[in-house]
Amino acid sequence: WTCSAHNAFNTWPSDFQVLANALGVGSYVESDGSIGLPYILARGASSGPPEPTDTTPPVITSTVTGTLGDNGWYVSPVTVSYTASDTGSGIDEDASDLGDDDLLSDRDGQSASGTAVDNAGNSATATASDIDIDQTDPDVTAPADQVVSSGDPAGAVVNFSPTGSDATSGIASVTSNPASGSVFPVGTTTVTHTSTDNAGNTSEGTHTVTVSLVLDIDIKPGSDVNPLNLNGNGVVPVAILGSDVLDVTTINVSTGSINGSTPAHNGHIEDVNDDGVADLVVHLTPSDFGIDTATPGGTALTLTLTGEFNDETAFSGQDDVRINGNNENSKGKGGKGPK
């Protein structure tokens, strides 16, 4: 550059450019009486003053968008977007990489980066890292259906162990409703098992618990072998044994049956086994049991008594009998036959 200061110019060479109008210098009176102003000229300037220098990188930030679950895990696809600014030369959009990055896979420790370049060539990068994504529900394995027996009308304590697995964030918990170790009532209950992974995804499975009320009964109390005459004209006493959890007075006596036989009368309360707890004794007719009268003597059979409580809760009980060999000739009361 070649600079020159003059009192006044009305014209100047084409290779000079006015850099400043020296207003503070004062005026100059031309010989023709016109008034000129001092100028500062520079030779070699053809397109104005030099551009200012930009050495500062632009500013770029990243933003992560998605559905956040538990423990910092995302449970949806994640989009990383970028915002850039530059107060000097401005952002060169063509040279910058500011497009959104979409992360779609289930995996931990993912990252994405964007780059901003300004018009002076300075650049800066923003990286979003440690992005954990788990969009998949865990697995849950329910136990097989369970059938248990109980002598308590209130039900039975039942235990089970469901399991869960998850390939990405891992299992946080497996819960059951009702829980294992609960008292399950008589009848069938559906148990729901919920598996939850560390990202908060859940899945469910079910199994059933069926509690059958099986009571202790004693056919022909006081007899060990329980001989049974199929052609006897008497009745057979059947005792339903009470306990500290079974109040036999809540049983609907009219529902007691062996193979469809009905009680001969309403029954009575008696402590047949001398345990200090009341038992219920009902009398049934052997000819109603449906056993083939030609069954050989000495044959052992297991008979099942069924019935209901007053609240219609069903129960059953079993005891063994031995068919008396003198069926055709026996007439003893109670079907006992000759000894």
Task: Characterise this structure.
This protein is mostly beta strands. The protein has 4 domains: about 40 residues, no CATH class; about 80 residues, no CATH class; about 70 residues, Immunoglobulins (Immunoglobulin-like, Sandwich); about 120 residues, Immunoglobulin-like (Sandwich). About 0% of the residues lie in helices and about 45% in strands. The protein is built from no helices and 27 strands. The strands form 9 sheets. Strands 13-19-18-16 form a 4-stranded mixed beta sheet, with no helix packed on it. The protein is rod-shaped. The N terminus and C terminus are likely disordered.
Give the gist of this structure.
The chain is an all-beta fold and 339 residues long. It is 0% helix and 45% strand.
Keywords:
disordered N terminus; four-stranded mixed beta sheet; disordered C terminus; single chain; mainly beta; 4 domains; 0% helix; 339 residues; rod-shaped; Immunoglobulin-like; four-stranded antiparallel beta sheet
